[in-house]
């Protein structure tokens, strides 16, 4: 894993890929700062008047449905067509899938695209497989008797995309091999935007490689270990928020190599 970690971080920081982000207004600033922190370059263009030009020159498209409207969904549809036209990887954050009819319908529609990576919490990834409503929505809880690794594998097989399922344990799979990551801290679920930031980082990684499994494994581990480092010495959640960006900007492959708790499922 050491070579994978080292190569991914170095490639992002040397190439500074442009990442087009269609994300929600609640976390847009955090997403931009996280992407900048690891060495990529975010742009948050929204108008169909410029999306084709922006995506043509971008390394990847990041789509987040945390805040949705008729206009935003149409912008996402157009952006996906442009990403397909210019062969740019699409990374999708299925925020709230399973919590409302409109989110479910759009998720069902959007995963038919050629998506490089899909990120969601346990509930959101479970929706892709089970198609059931879950009032928890953006919370990460599911029936603990369910094997999340099996659900993630099935979701990957259904969508033909790398799946990143985040919760107490994170799972990354391409439908053939599955990895569990037991890093991270509870505070990451208590600060708004950590999931959105992770998806922006996943898009940054996807922009510089076609090995989306190794990239997603590296980036998910990176985010979790940055969370562990951010907790040290914090006085409260405000410190954690600031520390997280600090550690994303300074983390290196040795931090990943020494700290990663990765196992094959």
TrEMBL record:
Residues engaged in binding substrate: 44, 193
Classification via HAMAP family: Thz_kinase
Protein known as: Hydroxyethylthiazole kinase
Keyword list, A-Z: ATP-binding, Kinase, Magnesium, Metal-binding, Nucleotide-binding, Thiamine biosynthesis, Transferase
Similarity-based family: Belongs to the Thz kinase family.
Catalytic activity: 5-(2-hydroxyethyl)-4-methylthiazole + ATP = 4-methyl-5-(2-phosphooxyethyl)-thiazole + ADP + H(+)
Gene Ontology MF annotations: ATP binding; hydroxyethylthiazole kinase activity; magnesium ion binding
Residues reported in the UniProt entry to bind ATP: 119, 166
Record-level GO BP terms: thiamine biosynthetic process; thiamine diphosphate biosynthetic process
Source lineage: Bacteria, Bacillati, Bacillota, Tissierellia, Tissierellales
Species of origin: Peptoniphilus asaccharolyticus DSM 20463
Domain of life of the source: Bacteria
Classification via InterPro entries: Hyethyz_kinase, Ribokinase-like
Necessary cofactors: Mg(2+)
Stated role: Catalyzes the phosphorylation of the hydroxyl group of 4-methyl-5-beta-hydroxyethylthiazole (THZ).
Pathway: Cofactor biosynthesis; thiamine diphosphate biosynthesis; 4-methyl-5-(2-phosphoethyl)-thiazole from 5-(2-hydroxyethyl)-4-methylthiazole: step 1/1
């Amino acid at each position: 894993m050491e070579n994978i970690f080292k190569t991914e971080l170095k490639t992002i920081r040397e190439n500074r890929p442009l990442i087009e982000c269609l994300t929600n207004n609640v976390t847009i600033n955090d997403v931009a700062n996280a992407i900048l922190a690891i060495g990529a370059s975010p742009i948050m263009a929204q108008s169909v008047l410029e999306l084709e030009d922006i995506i043509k020159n971008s390394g990847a498209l990041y789509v987040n449905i945390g805040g949705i409207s008729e206009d935003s969904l149409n912008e996402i549809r157009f952006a996906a067509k442009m990403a397909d036209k210019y062969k740019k990887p699409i990374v999708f954050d299925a925020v709230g899938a399973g919590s409302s009819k409109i989110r479910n319908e759009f998720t069902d529609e959007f995963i038919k695209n050629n998506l490089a990576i899909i990120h969601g919490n346990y509930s959101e990834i479970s929706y892709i497989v089970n198609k059931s409503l879950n009032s928890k929505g953006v919370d990460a809880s599911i029936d603990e008797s369910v094997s999340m690794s099996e659900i993630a594998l099935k979701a990957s097989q259904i969508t033909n995309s790398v799946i990143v399922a985040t919760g107490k344990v994170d799972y990354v799979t391409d439908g053939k091999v599955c990895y569990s990551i037991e890093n991270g801290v509870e505070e990451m679920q208590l600060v708004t935007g950590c999931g959105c930031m992770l998806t922006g980082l996943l898009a940054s990684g996807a922009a510089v490689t076609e090995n989306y499994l190794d990239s997603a494994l590296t980036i998910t581990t990176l985010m979790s270990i940055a969370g562990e480092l951010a907790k040290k010495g914090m006085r409260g959640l405000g410190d954690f928020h600031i520390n997280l960006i600090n550690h994303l900007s300074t983390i290196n492959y040795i931090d990943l190599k020494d700290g990663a708790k990765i196992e094959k499922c």
